[in-house]
Amino acid sequence: MPAAPTTSVYHLVVSVPPHAEGWRAEAAADCFGVTPAEVRVRASHPAPEVWFADPDEAAAEEAYGRLLEAGLNVVFTDSSILGAVPPRRAVRSLTVARAGIVWDLGNELTAETPFSTRGILVYGKPRTATQHKPGAATADGRLANPTFVDLYFEEERGAQRLHLASGAVKFTGLGERMRSTFGENVEALAALLRERLRAVREDGRLMDVPPRLPPVSGAGLPRVLESLKGSIRGVDPLELASRLVFLTSSWA
Asked: Is this prediction's pTM over 0.70?
C-alpha cells in the first residue's frame, strides 16, 4: 500500500475547556461520528486537546463551525503555530535581581525574565493510576503541589518558555521567601511574579490530569506531530497540552 501523502500544515480544531453548560452532545456526536456518550467523556477532559485535524482547511473549518453551533468552546488554528511554541528550557536555579529574575539553565546558560513583561504560569501534575481523588484546592481553585510549572513570558525575540520540575530546581535565590517543598516554593515564586510582573496569568487545568493523547478526528495526531519536523520531540501528552494552554491564552 502506498504511503499516505504528507503535508506541511494541518488545520486544527482545539477544545478549550471548561465548556459552557447546555452544549448539545447529539450535535457534536454527528461531527465526530461517535455516540453522544463518547463526546461527553471527551468534553469532560479538563485540559485543552486537539479534536480535529485536516490538511483541507475547509473541512476543518466546517468541523469548527459545527462544534461552535453545538455550544462547545473550541478554537481554530494550524499545526505550524503549534510547532512554533517555544520549547521547554529546564531551570536549575534562580536569582531575584533588581530588574527581573535570572534563571540558571546549566552549561553556563541563563535566561532573564524582566519584571516589565507579561507571563503565564502553567501548573501541571499528572494523575497516577492509583489516584482517584483530586488534591486539595488552593483559594483560587488551583490544585496544590504541582510536579512541574511552565513559565511563558514575552521577550524581544518572541515568547519564551522555562520549565521547572520537582526535584530539579534550587530555590535558594528566593531568599527569605524560600520554603521546604517544591509546591511551597512554586507558590512563593508565583506570589513574587504576581507582585512584580506587569501582568501574570495562572492556569491549573493540567493539575491532576490523566496523561492521554486524544482520538483526533480527521488526519490523526501522529501525522500532525510528524509534520512538525522535530519541533515536538516525542509525544508527551502534558507537554503538548501545555503548548495548547499557551496557544489558547489571551496574548499568545
From this structure: yes
